[in-house]
Amino acid sequence: MKNKFLLLGIALASLTACKTASTLQLADVKTQKNISINNELKNDEEFVKIIEPYKQKLDKEMNQKISHTSVDLTKQGDNSNLGNLLADYTFDGADAWTKTNLKKNVDAALINIGGIRTTIGKGDIFLKSVFEVMPFENEVIIVKMKGTDLQGLFDYYAKTQVNNPVSHLYIETNNGQLTQSLINGKPIVPAQDYYIATSDYLALGGDNMKFFSKGEAISTGIKLRDLFIEYFKKTSEVVPNTDIRLNFIGKK
Prior knowledge:
5'-Nucleotdase_C; globular; signal; 5-stranded mixed beta sheet; 5'-Nucleotdase_C_sf; 4-stranded mixed beta sheet; 5_nucleotidase/apyrase; 5'-nucleotidase C-terminal domain-containing protein; alpha+beta
């Protein structure tokens, strides 16, 4: 790929150098037949033989059982069981890292429902299930924020009423107006520093979460998907919390 860019650069430089030429000679342009990619296209048998050992190894790894659930884990509703579960995993993993590296506690966690790409049906949970749920290489970020700046977070939920999963947060609205906002069951202390766990995508303002820009983003180096895999493996039987965290009264 680098060679292609180099050749392109040389070609552009050559054209620039020849600007004063009175005429340009165009090479013959020949049309080529398009190759349709469909079921009739035959496999490259030699290539298939080369990748088969790697495919078998990958399939074996991806099909390993890492946990089990007796209920369907879905992303439906304002307090989806899969959303709550992954937000709790984010909180727990980030809190462990923060205790070790910052000597602080994480106060809450927030992830986006759009980052959860699919659901997990009841039964065995395989490694590939987590890759399907979280195909992105997002990192866990700790955002240090003043209590006064957290108002932007609560206003965001009141305005959008989107079911982005949270942990250790309670947000209540009535007809789009914020009526209650709690962290760990307590009102916000304006002068206090709070540590919020989220993804790098959201910390950088993804999903229009601009309120995070008022805080200090701290990198953990932990991939969200790796964290989820670790916690699924720790739990032989997944029992997600179904408590109410987002209470949008009168939501249309």
